[in-house]
UniProtKB/TrEMBL annotation:
Residues 4-372 form the Methionyl/Leucyl tRNA synthetase domain. It catalyses: tRNA(Met) + L-methionine + ATP = L-methionyl-tRNA(Met) + AMP + diphosphate. Gene3D superfamilies: HUPs, Methionyl-tRNA synthetase, Zn-domain. Transmembrane segments: none annotated. This is Methionyl-tRNA synthetase. Keywords: Aminoacyl-tRNA synthetase, ATP-binding, Ligase, Nucleotide-binding, Protein biosynthesis. It comes from the Bacteria. Belongs to the class-I aminoacyl-tRNA synthetase family. It comes from Saliniramus fredricksonii. Pfam families: tRNA-synt_1g (PF09334).
Amino acid sequence: MTRYIVTCTPPTPNGDLHLGHLSGPFLAAEICQRVLRQAGHDVLFVSYADDYQSYVLRKATELERDPVPFSELVRRTMMLSLESVDIRFDHFLRAFDSPAFQRAARHYLDIVSPDIERRKTPVHICSTTGFYGYEAFGRGCCNWCGASSDASQCEACARKPVPEKMSDMRSIFTGKPMELAEVETYVWHLGRHYNKVAQAHAHQPIRSCLREFLADVLADEADTWSITRPGDAGLQLDSLDEQPLHTWFMGLSGYRATVDAFLEENPERGTFKEWWAPDTRMVHFLGYDCSFSHAVAYCVQQVCDPSGPPVGLFLTNRFLKLDGDDFSTSRGNAIWIRDIAGLYPSDAIRLYAAWFAPETGVRNFEMSEFRKWVEGVYRPLAQSVRDVARTGIPSKPRGSDTGDYWRNSSSIAAWDRHADLDNFSIAGMAAAIIGLADEIAAAPRAERLAGWREFTRISAAICPNLAMTLNGEPSA
Ligand SMILES: [Zn+2]
């Protein structure tokens, strides 16, 4: 038995979660933690509300609300949306006002302190509103790839843009060009540790787009990153005078704090010292656009802190599009999880979202295709499951129903391969589940019950309700 901490990137509490979030890290992380538990490991599944994100401040400003109670309202909404598709974190921390979060942020600030200096850095400013363009309040063109981006991390290429090299930088509130100013910030010389980080990633089974990104970024050992953003959202610690730490520096702090806060309330699950330890494995699920903070910056924090878990596995996803366009909360181009969960069974949404997951490339979701799939694939499968469950699956073999027949099943072999962290893929697992249902339908009648026993095992992580029905348990 190994201790695993499975994380999902913290969502920004500026609006509810949509299908793009689900198909991205949320469902993949949730399925992964079920698979690890099924294999007998001890798992904590954690995330937190990214309350210190500057997009929360922007949304609260637009809605004329206080960001603190507003983000808590959205955090609770998100938890209900996730529950409607059977996703429950062990703990989903509220970062605002959390003593554990502040402790963790202080810890990693101490860890990196030998590598930080205070100096002037360029940043855009809107001369009308006074807002700085560190992130949510300005948008221009990424100097690396040319895509529209904020100045923090580019959604298209995942690099951190260089403010003075960005073009057409405009204020979000006025649409007017922003000016370049100089502000004193704390700058972290994180590149000094890139060699160690590259070594830690070298043998991890990460996807090729992240592998290429890391090869580019980690080659620059002179790389620096401002960790404070005066005049913007962030956590103000006493030791950093009017220099709030920005949220992207604090992601590992967030995971650490969530584990800490959970164990404080659930001491029967072990102590923080036992969990936040060198023999615990971390598995992170993240959008490709979060690659710099997660697979670079947090790994530097980890290689500089041997008392905690070592660099873990980072599994990235690309974006899901909707009818050819980006999912967008502000333009209303989104399918909300709570809406689709009110129309279709949770297992149907989970199985399709897994099968269609944009793991290595952008995918385009169309509601009409999903509807067709539900009627043509999911409903007949769920009916077969109910029919089998009515007669029951004997736990012991009977007659020729020995299970030998299924040793050569290509679908079961595919599921076993894709459920392993070395080749982890929810799309591969989902395709295997659908494939096994077809194999069972084509098998000799005497072999089918043993096939359904295998189906119960391999479907449990993605379609927990179908598996429970086959086990004769009431579904959730
Ligand atoms: Zn870019």
